[in-house]
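Bug report (template v2)

What were you trying to do?
Predict the complex of my protein with calcium ion.

What happened?
Run completed; filing so the output is reviewed.

Input:
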Amino acid sequence: MRVLVVEDETRLASALQRGLRAEGFAVDVARDGVAGLRMARESGYAAVVLDVMLPGLSGYRVCEALRAEGNWVPVLMLSAKDGEYDQADGLDVGADDYLIKPFSWVVLVARLRALLRRGTPARPATLTAGDLVLDPASHQVTRSGDPVALTAREYAVLECLLRRAGEVVSKTDLLRHVWDGHADGDPNVVEVYVGYLRRKIDAPYGRRAVQTVRGAGYRLDPDGG
Ligand code: CA
């Protein structure tokens, strides 16, 4: 299985290449974002390990460009930054998983294997619940055909709920997926963002797509409320 590593730090790139080869992967390395994007486009990699801070083109832009082209190769993002906004950014641009440097080798290999097991999903072009539509490629959300402007965090909450439409999603799950557990463990922040979301996608349309399941979490009505 061939994996592309896009990393400009020479020592880390070499360590990743050596380590992943020892795990049985074939590994190519790109040292900047432009080369990384070109290689990811041209070759059928099983997965891409993508640094965020890269010369030429950031990892965010590389991932965004791939997704916009309909390329859903599994992407594991690496970042030295640990701000919660960066986490949301990484997920928003279509990364499948995210690791903060420094990371443990065991964790990296485990997460990469998990991505590979999942494979390149046949993702729908859009996520829908009735007339509520989220397009992961263009990052646009519409309700009844109207574009709805969401912040990165609101978008991530909605995407998480839409991907599991009809299921109860706990606040803990939302914290983990959207905040990567970085919100000081305070589930109240989830309530706040769900409130913002309702004011944008539900209230103006007289709908109730985002339902509170008392004591359990939230459920997005697959029919759109
Ligand atoms: Ca870097």
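What did the reviewer find?
The chain has a mean pLDDT of 88. The pocket of calcium ion is lined by residues 8-9, 51, 53-54 (CB under 6 Å).
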